[in-house]
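ok, trying the design again with the full structure, not the truncated one.
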């Protein structure tokens, strides 16, 4: 927490008011645990991973299961409530793991995740959600009614779903990504997402209840744009998962919205980036992933 009466904090506030900026502090010193993605099939066969199993990984738990199934959630949490939720849910942008999923099914998944978060996260806690703005045109053509390029901003659905559940949008940030795939004008693409490869939303929702505001890490919390272009250049998230995010993103989220020792729920664990971040920063992760690999 931050003592707003301390001279150091007052000096920082004055500097910010005068337009002075400071770089984000280094997140972690030391070697990061490395995933063994190339051995996924081998390791699944070796350990016999099937749906419904809960694995204890040090102080963390990882479940092969459905994150909207309350029976599965009970198995991994064992009746506990966590300090914070942190995830990057399926985006409805046509990734391979979204095959045969309709747009309505995607929204139902998001609604169930938000509703479960109300039971899983402590009152006044935070739910950090990373998502892309543009839904795939194959999903939204019936909504827009357009035969040619017409963008559908899916953030309106995120706002409606989480706010209807009772969350308050506590913080809205942009993830500035280290990609630049735009090689031609926006309107020449036959997809609705090509020119949105350079940034994504990172929204922090606050649950009802709790008392006041706590700033866990001032330097991280004051940033509205989280720029990862120069962070973790050796970290290549798309080699781990088709929709992976860089390690620094969950690390910044943990610093901004949770204390040391906090418990974190990750309903869409993917390649396990959030678990690695929790291990490095002294948090405890309860992760869920439906895919046995």
């Amino acid at each position: 927490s931050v003592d707003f009466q301390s001279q150091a904090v007052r000096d920082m506030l004055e500097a910010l008011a005068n337009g002075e900026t400071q770089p984000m502090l280094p997140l972690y010193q030391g070697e990061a645990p490395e995933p063994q993605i190339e051995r996924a099939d081998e390791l699944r066969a070796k350990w016999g991973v099937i749906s419904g199993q809960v694995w204890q990984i040090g102080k963390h738990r990882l479940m092969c299961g459905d994150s909207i199934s309350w029976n599965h959630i009970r198995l991994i949490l064992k009746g506990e409530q966590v300090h914070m939720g942190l995830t990057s849910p399926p985006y409805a942008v046509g990734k391979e793991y979204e095959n045969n999923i309709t747009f309505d099914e995607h929204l139902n998944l998001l609604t169930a995740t938000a509703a479960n978060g109300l039971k899983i996260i402590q009152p006044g806690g935070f739910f950090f959600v990373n998502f892309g703005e543009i839904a795939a045109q194959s999903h939204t053509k019936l909504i827009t009614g357009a035969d040619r390029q017409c963008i559908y901003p899916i953030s309106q659905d995120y706002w409606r779903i989480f706010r209807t559940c009772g969350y308050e949008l506590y913080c809205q940030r942009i993830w500035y990504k280290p990609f630049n795939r735009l090689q031609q004008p926006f309107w020449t693409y036959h997809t609705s997402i090509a020119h949105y490869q350079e940034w994504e939303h990172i929204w922090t929702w606050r649950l009802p209840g709790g008392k006041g505001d706590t700033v866990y890490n001032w330097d991280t919390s004051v940033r509205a744009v989280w720029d990862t272009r120069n962070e973790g250049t050796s970290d290549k998230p798309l080699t781990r998962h088709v929709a992976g995010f860089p390690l620094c993103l969950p690390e910044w989220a943990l610093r901004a919205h949770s204390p040391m020792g906090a418990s974190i729920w990750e309903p869409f664990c993917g390649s396990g980036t959030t678990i690695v971040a929790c291990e490095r920063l002294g948090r405890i992760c309860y992760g869920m992933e439906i895919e046995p690999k």
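Keeping the full-length input from now on. The chain has nine helices and nine strands.
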